[in-house]
């Protein structure tokens, strides 16, 4: 078999396996680096406050526009989204495409692995900002 064909076969075998692997410490560390892109506007963890954007504790499972005391755009508030991992991945790739009219000014993260790592980082925090 050609080296290229072998490589293609190998990656076809490996990528579905990667998709079901639980988050590793490396993923979370990489996700924390990615989180630096969010920190100008968002906080997470115990005592996290709303800044330019709402705090992001317990995000996965949360309903869009539901943080107390944060003044969302109408677009976000009425988007009817519940943030599961798939919807979050779609959103963070291109926030304005997923929620037209959102006031989150962020170009998006295009790399799927980076999104998975960032999700692993975010998922550590429950709704009170405690690490699970
Ligand atoms: C320049 C500021 C800014 C940056 C950078 C930013 N955000 Fe936001 N984000 C916002 C604002 C403002 C909103 C509120 C949007 C609205 O009401 O339309 C928001 C909303 C959100 C929401 C919806 C929350 C909810 O309760 O419905 C998520 C999820 C989110 N941001 C995740 C992220 C992540 C993850 C990053 C980093 C990769 C990021 N944001 C980077 C400003 C920002």
Automatic annotation (TrEMBL):
Q: Do you know which InterPro entries this protein is assigned to?
A: Cyt_c-like_dom (IPR009056), Cyt_c-like_dom_sf (IPR036909), Cyt_c_1A/1B (IPR002327)
Which protein are we looking at?
Cytochrome c domain-containing protein
Signal peptide boundaries: 1-19
Single GO term (MF): heme binding
Q: Which UniProt keywords apply?
A: Electron transport, Heme, Iron, Metal-binding, Signal, Transport
Q: In what residue span(s) does the Cytochrome c domain sit?
A: 26-126
Note whether Metal-binding occurs among the keywords.
yes
Species of origin reads Bosea vaviloviae
Gene3D superfamilies to which the protein is assigned, alphabetical = Cytochrome c-like domain
């Amino acid at each position: 078999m050609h080296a290229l064909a072998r490589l293609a076969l190998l990656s076809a075998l490996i990528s579905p396996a990667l998709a079901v692997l639980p988050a590793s410490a490396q993923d979370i560390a990489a996700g924390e680096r990615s989180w630096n892109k969010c920190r100008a506007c968002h906080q997470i963890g115990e005592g996290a406050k709303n800044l330019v954007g709402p705090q992001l504790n317990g995000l996965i499972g949360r309903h869009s526009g539901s943080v107390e005391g944060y003044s969302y755009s109408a677009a976000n508030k009425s988007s009817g989204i519940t943030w599961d991992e798939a919807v979050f991945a779609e959103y963070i790739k291109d926030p304005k495409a997923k929620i037209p009219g959102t006031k989150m000014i962020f170009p998006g993260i295009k790399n799927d692995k980076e999104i998975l790592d960032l999700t692993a980082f975010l998922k550590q925090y429950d709704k009170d900002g405690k690490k699970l």
